[in-house]
What does this fold into?
Amino acid sequence: MEVPLLDVALHHAPIQKEIEDAALRVLRSGRYILGPEIQGFEKELAESLGSADAIAVSSGTDALLAAFMALGAGPGSEVVMPPFTFFATAGVLSRLGAKPVFVDVEPDSFNMDATKVEDAMTPRTIAMEPVHLFGQCADLDVLSEISKRRGVPIVEDACQAIGAKWNGRQAGTVGAAGCFSFFPSKNLGGAGDAGAIATNDPKLAERLRAIRVHGGARTYFHDEVGGNFRMDAIQAAILRVKLIHLSGWEERRRKNAEIYRRLFEEAGLAGDPVVLPAVKPGARHVYNQFVIRVPRRDDLAKHLGAARIGHAVYYPLPLHLQPCFGYLGYSEGSFPESERACREVLALPIFPELVLPQLEQVVGSIREFYRGKGA
It folds into this structure.
């Protein structure tokens, strides 16, 4: 059988009528920009996260962009972040004229090595930007201690980690701002682009709400230059329906992850050649992706493709080796763990609606590749 990496239509099927009713409600209301749907979603999201406020915006990228605009990122400023992440994590800084300063990742979690962050800081550092990659938080205890001691705020890139926790604290609620993406492939996905920023700082929340409407707290009066970062009301309405189901979906993702672990153990693949995702002590992993490390990754990917098994490489090239960041002066070997991850990682299907025969097929195909004839 085919095993897709993600099947959004199947995921939506049990709540399709609720989603359609919510979208129709917005279409009939005539209120498509901001308004009551946005206000309702912001309130419900903040309550779900346990944050004082949440500001709905147009995408996860724009959430990061608006957050750094509010913190004054610009020419002469630096932000410490990992090079093994989605492009937007650093792209928004470059767009503002700020400098990304990279710190290598941990080999087991793929998150920024918090013990190396302080060595990368300079008097120009205005923020730390941990990425809670694949659904697991970076070490927020160490980063929070550095933040308090150095007076440098944390902007959490929690775009892949809604619902994740670190020692009981929700991803996106520990730093000055937490940024979320609701791209359709996320654990909480919209019907297009959407994002949000969580914060416990009322002054920052007020400024973010102005920034998302071109920097105007009052219509047609602008204290600064912002952007058009508004979430569409139809996205908010759909996300309100889905938010109610998020915790249940997360539990099924974790259950699928445990089944994978058992199946890989039974197949004699766990550890060698398949390194399974590590879960750090104190972490609550929500498995936006289930990412393994394997030798001959590209050959395995071709094998899975031929077997109609979905897979993806997040990410094939670290940011410090991207041509557009050549001006930063990094080279191959600058961040060996990030570079090794790019050669070895492979994401497998993990979405909630997968059934046991599909998970068995994924593991069986990988066993065939490594242990079968001609392997």
About this structure: The chain has two domains: 8-103+110-243, 246-371. Residues 246-266 form the longest helix (21 residues). The chain has a mean pLDDT of 97. Residues 8-103+110-243 form a domain with the Aspartate Aminotransferase; domain 2 fold (CATH 3.40.640.10).
